[in-house]
Amino acid sequence: MFNKTRGYLASLETIFLISCLGVMGIVLFAQVVTRYVFQTPLVWSEEAARYLHVWIALFGIHFGLRQNAHIRVTFFYDRMPGKIKGLVRVFSDLVILATIGVYLPGSVIFIQDQATIVSSAMEVNMGLVYIPSFIGFFVAFLYFLVQTLQSVHLVFSGHPEDVPALEETPATIVQGGQDQC
Questions:
Q1: What's the structural domain count of the chain?
Q2: With 153 labelled, which of 40, 70, 83, 165 sits at a CA distance of 20 to 30 A?
Q3: DSSP of 32-85
Q4: pLDDT tens digits for the chain (181 residues)?
Q5: Which domain holds residue 141?
Q6: Does the pTM of the predicted model rise above 0.90?
Q7: Contacts of 140 (CB under 8 A, 6+ apart)
């Protein structure tokens, strides 16, 4: 049930990110056509594309975590024995969780500061533009909280070898070792 819900939310997230990218491409294409063909550029297009880019980057925080696309140096980790490897994974997850936990309230403060500003071309409240920062960090925090709890449970229940390796994607873990991506 939990994996099914997580898969559904992951699909919605992917569709949203692809849609934002598609809309951004269409807006930029329309800008080029109106500027060079009709000699009257769209005033709002560059700003809209910039905001869509911000949304893609900030919503993409969790997407990168879910796809395990962030850069890691695993030279020493790969050479550790099972129990130590499990403990290092838990420690790594705790550090990431703490870092995201620091950014989460900071994103709320940033959104509140930006809420007093209105964009120049589109006259959009800038707080709305940066709401994805909170959403991205919040979803990433929940993701790492669940992952950390699962890793802690495996390490302290005597099965540290079952803690997923750093290079395994969540899709690999859910499918029991068969990557469906």
A1: 1
A2: 70
A3: HHHHHTSS---SSHHHHHHHHHHHHHHHHHHHHHHTT-S----TTGGGS-HHHH
A4: 556 777 777 788 889 899 999 999 999 999 999 999 998 888 899 889 998 998 898 888 878 877 777 777 778 877 888 778 888 888 888 898 999 999 999 999 999 999 999 988 888 899 988 898 898 888 888 888 888 888 788 777 776 566 665 555 444 344 444 444 4
A5: 2-166
A6: no
A7: 61, 62, 65, 100
